[in-house]
Write a structure and sequence with these properties.
Layout: E1 6-9, H1 13-23, E2 27-30, H2 36-41, E3 49-52, E4 62-64, E5 70-72, H3 78-82, H4 85-90, H5 92-99, H6 104-107, H7 112-118, H8 124-131, E6 135-140, E7 143-148, H9 149-152, E8 153-155, E9 158-159, E10 166-172, E11 179-186, E12 197-206, E13 209-218, E14 225-226, H10 228-234, H11 241-251, H12 265-284, E15 316-319, E16 326-330, E17 333-337, H13 345-352, E18 371-374, E19 377-380, E20 393-395, H14 408-415, H15 425-438, H16 444-450, H17 461-477
Parallel strand pairs: 1-3, 2-3, 16-20
Antiparallel strand pairs: 1-15, 4-5, 5-10, 6-7, 6-10, 8-9, 11-12, 12-13, 13-14, 16-17, 18-19, 18-20
Helix pairs in contact: 5-8, 10-11, 11-12, 14-17, 15-17
Length: 478
């Protein structure tokens, strides 16, 4: 059964907003799709039309403009933002929030704009952008408007965005002296975890006293909230343990949490206190980076790729009931697949091309068993629409070996007995091989970070990490 009726690949913003005007509430914009595809699979959203904006030039720009503001286009991914020197220097809370979204392959597709529009109060980047006092630009055929992020949300998963509007820009002032910020998150595991609670803090400190304070809390109310009592308690005081403790305790007063599967309301309030305390202490000690890697040390799983391909010409439409082929290269061969326009990439690869090495696991972006490369970048096939592959170059586990010779990662997995049941193995191998394309000599910490989006139900991680280290040695010998 098709997941949607029509999939448009727009090639201009004007075309995208015209399609939104034509289809109204029947349409949804898709960028990364890492939230939307899950909602469609679970039938919490049932759009008939998807409008893909990933091929529109300029929408992935992240830069400081002449107006003195940092601007993010709607196609800026979490990986791009986390590794941005500009954001790490002048918007650290946002870079930190992006780094803790999912795993590497998910961050390569998921976008900050998608995080904002999904509007879950547990979403990481909303809390950071609220602390940065961001402004959101919306565009339709009726014109353009700007909305402060503080006014954008009306409830759980509800925003002011109209059915015919496209989010085209996110902007905020860079953090420069005397301002600094930090983001912290508590999940049920270190990665691939929805926040039980998250906190972002931005302070201005002059002459040893706090002059400006913004403390935002996520996953403790229907929307992201400020902690005004805590902010007021800090103003015109030194950032010492007395006022840190007072502000941390007062921050919990802004929380209105619920009990759910991730944590009780009581636990969330306690964690607000702990996270605000830790964040303020980090700022007081001038150590706000916490454990965020430097941009050059981040394993992104981009391989040798550094750009997103574009489609030229008119907008491409794939009808689920039609016979328009999805044309792309897979493992070095040109293919044209018909009848897959309403599927995910994972099911097109398996069902239509017989490439069953990419496994059907969680189908929610949490296990990594379906990891493939799209134009050299590791992505999750279960969260990628099949029509998005049109015009791209896909590599699956079947295409990794060349001329009958195993890839160094595959060879090392054999020699190190890094395979147990084997179900997760293709995903691990694809992630590891991409890491070595990007960085032939990774540290153990970088290997662990690169594989953080892949789960082994047999808990065979030690051998897997050892195998990647050995594969790195093989690559170095060649």
């Amino acid at each position: 059964m098709a997941l949607w009726e029509i999939y448009y690949t727009a090639t201009s913003v004007e075309e995208a907003v015209r399609l939104l005007a034509d289809y109204g509430e029947r349409a949804r914009v898709i960028a990364g799709g890492t939230d939307l595809l899950i909602e469609i699979e679970h039938k919490t959203r049932t759009p008939a039309v998807l409008i893909d904006i990933t091929r529109i030039g300029g929408l992935d720009e992240l830069r400081l403009r002449e107006d003195g503001l940092i601007h993010l286009g709607p196609m800026v991914t979490h990986a791009q933002a986390a590794s941005s020197p500009l954001l790490q220097e002048h918007a650290l809370p946002l870079a930190q929030a992006c780094w803790w979204v999912g795993g590497p392959a998910l961050r390569n597709r998921g976008t900050i704009a998608g995080n904002l529009v999904t509007a879950s109060p547990a979403n990481d980047t909303i809390t950071a952008l609220r602390a940065l006092d961001a402004t959101i630009t919306l565009r339709s055929v009726r014109g353009e408007r700007q909305v402060p992020i503080s006014e954008f949300y009306t409830g759980v998963r509800r925003t002011l965005i109209a059915p015919d509007e496209l989010l085209t820009d996110i902007s905020f002032r860079p953090l420069k002296a005397p301002y600094q910020g930090v983001y912290l998150k508590l999940g049920l595991r270190r990665v691939l975890a929805i926040a039980v609670t998250n906190v972002a803090i931005v302070l201005g400190i002059e002459d040893g006293k706090v002059t400006t304070a913004r403390i935002t809390l996520g996953s403790v109310a229907p929307t992201i909230v400020r902690a005004p009592e805590a902010e007021t308690a800090l103003l015109q005081h030194p950032l010492d343990e007395t006022f840190i403790e007072k502000a941390a305790e007062l921050a919990a007063q802004a929380a209105r949490p619920i009990d759910d599967v991730r944590g009780s309301a009581w636990f969330r309030k306690e964690e607000v206190v702990a996270l605000v305390r830790r964040g303020l202490q980090a700022l007081a000690q001038n150590q706000p980076r916490l454990d965020l890697p430097q941009p050059e040390a981040m394993p992104l799983l981009w391989g040798k790729s550094r750009c997103r391909p574009r489609l030229s010409g008119p907008t491409v439409a794939h009808y689920s009931a039609g016979d328009e082929p999805i044309q792309f290269r897979v493992n070095g061969e040109n293919v044209a697949v018909r009848g897959a326009n309403g599927k995910t990439l994972l099911h097109m690869l398996r069902d239509d091309l017989g490439l069953v090495g990419s496994k059907v696991g969680c189908e929610e972006g949490e296990c990594g068993a379906c990891t493939v490369w799209m134009d050299g970048i590791a992505i999750l096939a279960c969260l990628t629409p099949a029509p998005r592959a049109h015009g791209t170059d896909i590599v699956t586990i079947e295409g990794l070996s060349k001329d009958g010779e195993l890839h160094p990662v595959q060879q090392a997995f054999v020699e190190e007995d890094a395979v147990q049941c084997g179900y997760c193995t293709p995903g691990f191998v694809m992630s590891a091989a991409n890491l070595l394309e990007e960085n032939p000599n990774p540290t153990r910490e970088q290997i662990i970070a690169a594989l953080s989006g892949n789960l082994c139900r047999c808990t065979g991680y030690y051998k897997i990490i050892t195998a990647v280290e050995k594969a790195s040695e093989y690559k170095g010998e060649k």
